[in-house]
Amino acid sequence: MKRAFYHRIAAVSSYYADRLFGGKLQRVYDLASPRIRQYLDAETGLVIETVKGARRVLELGCGYGRAMKEVAPYVTRILGNDISRESLELAASHLRQFRNCDLVRMDASRLAFRDGTFDAVFCIQNGISAFGKDRHGLVAEAVRVAEDGGVILFSSYSPRIWADRLDWFRAQSRAGLIGEIDESQTNNGTIVCKDGFRASTVGEEEFRALFREVGLAASIHEIDRSAVFALAVKIRTA
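Below the sequence we write its predicted structure tokens.
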């Protein structure tokens, strides 16, 4: 694999930068139940189906390289960004076998790429909520760095997988990876921990509105009764 490189940015206050990174983040996925693993496989499967054959792909919030490892064989080149140095270092080790992967330390809401750099950009595993960034800004940046005709893909959880998702987060809490879940505040797709961690979701109408704000029409797809995807092609409607 081409040597990973890191773009230095100002410190970003984030649960995933300050607490849930590197090996701890990998442990989160090790705790996934068979149903959650099915969801994760379905999610990466749709990404592969969508970006297969792309020349230059960007994953926003690549973590330790879990999805990149699955996507890399199907594209010419893929670059992953994350704000955690430790996660990127672990990703570099996981992706060592691939020569078409690069890693960069960068805030997904302030990408240091020129307009139109990538022909596909994706952000999965509810990153649009988990990053704790302005959702409009994340979508706008993804669209900005996509080339004309490029594909932009975001995903969030379907309400249909709520019970399994909550069980997964409870397992993470018991393992000390996230704080104690505040059961009184956790409902309707939003998980709240007593240490301040909060994970909500983005639904169909919000996805449509976010893309309308940047002049694009998004198509919405629910797969596996577990993931909601918003897919747009960078062709301006206004």
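The chain has nine helices and nine strands.
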